């Protein structure tokens, strides 16, 4: 597949975001995996685990369309 994106001079920010897309995707996947692994730690209190779990759920909702193929 070949995709060509063209931006004019007024769209510098959009071009920058498009260029950095793969790095953002990789960072988001790394953070998702970090949260998943962090919840497995056995030294977390129930309260801490609940907070981390809620953060992970919200992260998954916000990034679902970017990280997970449908």
Percent of sequence in beta strands: under 5%
User: How many beta strands in the DSSP annotation?
Assistant: 0
Question: What is the C-alpha radius of gyration, as a whole number of Å?
Answer: 17 Å
Mean pLDDT: 91
Task: Please tally the helical runs, counting DSSP H or I stretches of 4 or more residues.
Answer: 3
Global shape: elongated
What structural class results from the helix and strand content? Answer: mainly alpha
What sequence of helices (H) and strands (E) makes up the elements? Answer: HHH
List unreliable stretches of 5+ residues.
none
Q: What does the main sheet amount to?
A: none
End-to-end gap: 19 Å
What proportion of the residues is helical, as a percent range? 55-70%
If you had to describe this structure to a student in words, what would you say it looks like?
Helix content is 69%, strand content 0%. The mean pLDDT is 91. The protein has 70 residues and is mainly α. Helix 2 packs antiparallel against helix 3. The two termini are 19 Å apart.
């Amino acid at each position: 597949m070949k995709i060509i994106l063209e931006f004019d001079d007024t769209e510098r920010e959009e071009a920058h975001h498009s260029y950095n897309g793969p790095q953002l995707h990789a960072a988001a996947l790394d953070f998702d995996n970090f949260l998943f692994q962090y919840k497995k730690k056995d030294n977390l209190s129930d309260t801490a685990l609940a907070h981390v779990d809620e953060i992970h759920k919200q992260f998954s909702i916000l990034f679902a369309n970017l990280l997970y193929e449908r």
